[in-house]
Specification:
There is one protein chain. 73% of the residues lie in helices and 0% in strands. It is built from seven helices and no strands. The radius of gyration is 19 Å and the shape is elongated. The model has no long low-confidence stretch (mean pLDDT 90).
Length: 177
């Protein structure tokens, strides 16, 4: 078993450390950690899924910025592309969870991992605000996207590029098992 993260001395983190220690000792975690092929296979699925997530989000964001697919309405493009985004996101979340359980204590202590998750939260919050507030008048947009829609698209692109950057940093900041 690996040492617990440096934050373990904080009293409010103790239950989290206990949960992560338990998770790391489960059979699936041991299998992923000890198998020669499981981690790389799961990681490959994760990368492919994230590529699809970010690629489809980029298509939608570029449409909102009126830089691509301007011959179609945002609503039409979103209706066709976003189901692929959600399917790929489900695969990315599942594979990411599987990667996480292989070394939960180490990931919990990793600054790049925490930063990636903070950015994922911000990307999700940006999407939620867009869906509930900015995009509720989509039917009336026609060809012109309002400024708020363009700001949401720029923030989305920024957050997702940063997610990729910090996701890549995780591999360079983790100690080998």
């Amino acid at each position: 078993m690996r040492r617990a993260p440096d934050v373990q001395s904080e009293p409010n983190v103790q239950p989290v450390i206990a949960l992560l220690s338990w998770l790391e000792a489960t059979r699936p975690a041991e299998f992923i950690r000890e198998s020669e092929w499981a981690f790389p296979t799961i990681e490959s699925a994760h990368v492919i899924a994230l590529t699809l997530v970010i690629g489809t989000i980029t298509v939608v964001d570029l449409r909102l910025l009126e830089l691509a697919s301007t011959n179609r309405t945002y609503a039409e493009l979103a209706r066709e592309v976003l189901p692929w985004t959600w399917g790929a996101f489900a695969l990315a979340a599942t594979s990411g969870t599987m990667l996480f359980i292989s070394q939960p204590l180490a990931y919990f202590d990793n600054w790049a991992f925490r930063t990636k998750f903070a950015l994922l939260f911000l990307a999700g919050l940006n999407m939620l605000i867009f869906q509930l507030i900015t995009g509720r008048d989509i039917c009336r947009w026609n060809a012109a996207v309002p400024r708020a829609g363009k700001i949401a698209a720029m923030l989305s692109l920024l957050f997702w590029i940063a997610v990729v950057f910090f996701g890549r940093r995780i591999g360079f900041t983790m100690m080998p098992v």
